[in-house]
Write a structure and sequence with these properties.
Elements (H helix, E strand, L loop, with lengths): L2 H14 L3 E5 L4 E5 L9 E3 L9 E3 L17 H4 L3 E4 L4 E4 L15 E2 L4 E7 L2 E6 L4 E6 L5 E3 L4 E6 L2
Antiparallel strand pairs: 1-2, 3-4, 5-12, 6-8, 6-11, 7-10, 8-9, 10-12
Length: 159
């Protein structure tokens, strides 16, 4: 079972209104729980054989990890930058719609409260606002890529 199958299962469970669904196969065990007031989805993928790596995805719709730059910058170079991380799991979008301009670009100066991107989670589009002022140094995620909770999205130079 791949992540796309898990995503489709979560969408189905969310639409069905079920409060809990458990699924076990030879190599995967999944439990999806939803609350009555606020919807919370928990997916645990545990290997029962040696073929699959251990994965655990916390609340919200799980997505594949977006490819992150394989050549990280030197630690001393990154230490002066502030990393803006994803507050939720979902799909990262750099613009409000396909025909609109990008929210931010590398080299652009941002202020606290500026919208940096949108993250879609279960058909809800969440505007991600900057909590810092500074200059965008690097955008770490490609447009329309899935992102994980706490995944770095932007590097900002606060000076």
């Amino acid at each position: 079972m791949d992540l796309k199958d898990i995503q489709n299962l979560i969408k189905f469970v969310a639409k069905s209104g079920a409060s809990e669904v458990k699924l076990e196969t030879d190599d995967v065990k999944i439990t999806i729980k939803t609350g009555s007031d606020t919807e919370t989805t928990i997916v645990q993928q545990m290997p029962m054989g040696a073929q699959m790596p251990h994965m655990q995805m916390p609340t919200a719709a799980p997505q594949q990890a977006a490819p992150v730059d394989a050549t990280p910058a030197a630690p001393a170079e990154d230490s002066k930058y502030i990393t803006i991380k994803s507050p939720i799991i979902g799909t990262f979008y750099r613009k409000p719609s396909p025909d609109k301009p990008l929210f931010v670009e590398v080299g652009q100066t941002i202020a606290e409260g500026d919208v940096l991107c949108i993250i879609e989670a279960m058909k809800l589009f969440n505007e991600i606002e900057s909590e810092v002022s500074g200059k965008i140094v690097k955008i770490l995620v490609d447009d329309s890529s899935p992102v994980e909770f706490d995944q770095p999205l932007f590097l900002v130079d606060p000076s």
